[in-house]
Fold each of these.
Amino acid sequence: MSIAIVSDSACDLPKDILKKFNITEVPVNVTFGDKVYKENVDITGDEFYKKLTSSNDFPTTSQPSPGDFEKIYNNLLKKYDEILSIHISSKVSGTYNSAVQAADKVGKGKITVVDSLSVSMGTGLVIIKVAEMLKEKKSSKIKDLEKYAKDLVRKSRIIVACETVEYLKRGGRVSSAAAFFGALLNVKPVIGNRDGEVIAISRPRSMVKALSFLRREAESYKNHQGMAVMQTTESFDSRALYNSLSGNQESKKGNKDSNASTKNMYIGDVVKAQFGPAIGAHAGPGAVGVAFIGDAPE
């Protein structure tokens, strides 16, 4: 039985990974004023951030419609026997519900939809691991892939450090008063996911401290199965975090167990990705994040 994997553009999977695993991406809608764009089709990430910093209109994102999913599912079912569709948290987007509606209408039991309860590469890493399993074992049953995905979902986490509180204020994530005092104190908000929702985690007063917090959190987990560093716009901070985490691979050369973390240091390949509008509109330019799959500290 051949199985196709579907994601949405809010998962922020890099193009080379989409191509490597033949993952079909359903674009999220991005709106500036009265103009609607399909993410990664009509507007690139870099173009989005140029508009974000120059436009008076604050952008909004909306889920693909059930009809968008129907078209893609119908096309894929002409070539594949089944579809595994994995999407960002149903608690922050209607994408999962659109996929479920379309699957019920056209799937005839052939489409399985999974709620990742995460966003961006918190979802993307789950998709990568499932795609690796399918590539390594083409005879995998969709129920086994679904179970594996849900096991990974429970271990997936994402943390984001924002350079400024301004975009959280513009997007209504913090009050104007909180944003004012945050800016006054030079606070760098750290946000993350818990039970499928985006929450505030910490308020360090410099990006150096924020990046240190991100790394400590990532390496407090054990038995990592994947890690990614994300950025909204290219910056020294994102390069520094990426280099520090990917540098673990060099420092642990010679370790016989090269597929697992040792002393909580992830030694696999670190994925580098760009935040799309779903997170980027609120995090703003200069934001840096880390996503990982691992066992929580005791």
Amino acid sequence: MNFFKERIKLNRNEFSGAFGDIGTDLPLIIGMLLVTNLQMSNVLIVYGFLQILTSIVYGIPMPVQPLKAVALLVISQKISSDVIFGGGFAIGIIMLFLTITGLINWLNKIIPKTVIRGIQFGLGLQLSLLAIKEYIPSDSYIGYIFASIGFVIGLILIGNKKYPPAIFILLLGFIYIIAFKFNIIATINISLPHITIPELKYDSIVSGLIILALPQIPLSLGNSIFATKQLAQDYFPEKKITAKGIGFTYSAMNIISSFFGGLPVCHGSGGIAGHYTFGGRTGGSTFIYGLFYLLLGLFFSGNAVETLQIFPKPILGVILLFEGIALILLIKDIITDKKMFFIAVIVGICANGLPNGYLIGMVIGTILYYLSDKWILKYFGKI
């Protein structure tokens, strides 16, 4: 019993932290459900279960996230559920191979901290720009008004343990729903889930490997494994979390998810940053977040997928913006080192702006790190 008490605390700060990553997750989940034949009950229940599982395993806010490269490919190309399950299985097997062979540990040793900071910087920029360009303006001037109020609430209450900010930002979102989307609330029904168990096929695994796994793995190594491990060490140095351990849970989650009709998933530094920024300090925040999706899957998955869009995007954008800013600010511990800062900025620009930018940035940044300091500082000193 003490094992769970130490790892999972349930209080208002954990509740606030629980929704620190919803701005990233929920739109991707909805997007994939809208364009595929995925079973909504399976997706939500498996997703919630995996959140709860990782909350127990890690005892810190180590949330589960949809795989971003996979999600974008699925949404843009309307990929069938068989290929999605096959891709998730292939991703899990590849990561398991990298983990048990020790390749993850080897890569973690040769990729310097400044490159990881660059990846986090690039991801932070990406999330912040997404919030400002797409989420916050989505409901015209009303969206701007509510987003502005939410942002001010966040600024005032960030770090406040007595009045954690996400609770009040979410409350603002519910006021928005009642005021402008009450007609959608009236159509929501409580219903039991319809669960199906998919069959993994060889052809689907091969197709998923080529279409989904190969584009995803470089991003996963950079952000889901190395950047997540670094951020877990930054926030929770006493936990001794390793790249190998994250690799194991990453692979296990995708293998489990593919057999039960769930989405391909990962951990992510953005998820930890979001939960931590809004108050999460134990697995309790991830546990609560998992319960949220379990309840949706168990009792509300009989409704149309569109009902999941009821929560206002401008408010999700505020949460996403704080998550992005938290990631950007991690660069502060290398900002006084000219070489390190230069490399991190280059990596961040590549990650944010190039196709397969996380892989390209990781390779370029690592090469720059091992070059003679004189080559970099000779240029940087003139800036």
